[in-house]
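Action item from last meeting closed. Structure (328 res):
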């Protein structure tokens, strides 16, 4: 029984890691295209807008992700949980979108970039779509459908690349890149709905309070980590950095994606597998799986050293000489 759980988790991790890893080639191709189209200043504006919206989206979904996987994994009928989860994601995502529409001018003033207000309002359309897509992701992981989750993610990154290239080439410039990102969330949501069909309108006897009680402490931790993770870019801009410098910094961040991709693929599957193992009463197997997971993280260290050593050559090859200040 233990080997089956390990095999299922390992196979799922590999599939989701490979799907998330598509962010690396598609993201680099997208960044190489946009940096040459927009230049440092235009790419900086897009990076700032994308970072703000992504930070909000990831922070909101982190409230319920682990709680969703846990409660879905512990029940025979996941549909009541799925209905409650979907409603909560719809409410918080829609509320955040409205808040961005109201506060965009103020954010632009703080960042000293008036043009960013329009892009923030346009990009805010992505928040509810991303939240709904992520709710479906969590449900798929909770019920053990790792392959379907991987397919949805892979198609998201491919759609994002193609939509951005198409819309920017059509002359929509930064707005085209924003709309391409929004369209990618819509594609992922549609693919997830093909595999699983939770309804936000069905009756549910699963109380939302259980998700809040379990999710809020984890959310506060995740929010702190996300804020710490993105504070550097905001601080750079608020403390007098130019849009071009933000573009350099954003380009450098694109080259540090691999550890984050691995974590994004591995952590939810580990949680789902451990939840199901503990629910079955097999505590010894859960301990062995946890030890194996901690050892796997050490395998990422050599990649960090290789990337740092070749940074100037990598930056010049991908982004062009105009972005060479991003190498250090």
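Sequence:
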């Amino acid at each position: 029984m233990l080997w089956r759980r390990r095999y299922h988790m390992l196979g799922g991790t590999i599939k989701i890691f490979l799907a998330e890893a598509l962010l690396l080639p598609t993201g680099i191709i997208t960044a190489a295209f946009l940096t040459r189209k927009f230049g440092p200043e235009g790419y900086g504006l897009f990076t700032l807008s994308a970072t703000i919206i992504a930070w909000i989206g990831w922070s909101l979904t982190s409230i319920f992700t682990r709680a969703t996987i846990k409660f879905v994994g512990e029940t025979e009928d996941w549909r009541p949980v799925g209905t409650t989860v979907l409603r909560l994601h719809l409410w918080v995502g829609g509320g955040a979108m409205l808040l961005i529409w109201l506060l965009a001018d103020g954010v632009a003033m703080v960042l000293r970039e008036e043009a960013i207000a329009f892009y923030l309002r346009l990009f805010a359309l992505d928040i509810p779509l991303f939240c709904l897509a992520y709710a479906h992701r969590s449900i798929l992981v909770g019920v053990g459908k790792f392959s379907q989750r991987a397919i949805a993610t892979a198609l998201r990154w491919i759609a994002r690349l193609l939509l951005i290239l198409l819309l920017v080439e059509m002359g929509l410039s930064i707005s085209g890149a924003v709309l391409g990102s929004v369209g990618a969330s819509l594609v992922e949501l549609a693919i997830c709905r093909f595999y699983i069909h939770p309804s936000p309108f069905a009756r549910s006897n699963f109380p939302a309070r259980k998700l809040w009680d379990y999710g809020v402490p984890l959310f506060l931790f995740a929010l702190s980590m996300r804020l710490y993770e993105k504070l550097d870019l905001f601080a750079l801009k608020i403390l007098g950095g130019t849009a071009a410098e933000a573009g350099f910094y954003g380009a450098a961040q694109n080259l540090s994606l691999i550890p984050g991709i691995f974590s994004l693929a591995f952590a939810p599957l580990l949680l789902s597998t451990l939840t199901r193992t503990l629910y079955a009463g097999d505590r010894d197997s859960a301990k062995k799986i946890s030890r194996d997971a901690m050892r796997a993280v050490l395998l990422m260290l050599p990649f960090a050293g290789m990337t740092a050593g070749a940074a100037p050559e990598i930056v010049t090859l991908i982004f062009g000489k105009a972005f060479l200040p991003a190498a250090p």
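Note appended to the action item: The two ends are 49 Å apart (CA to CA).
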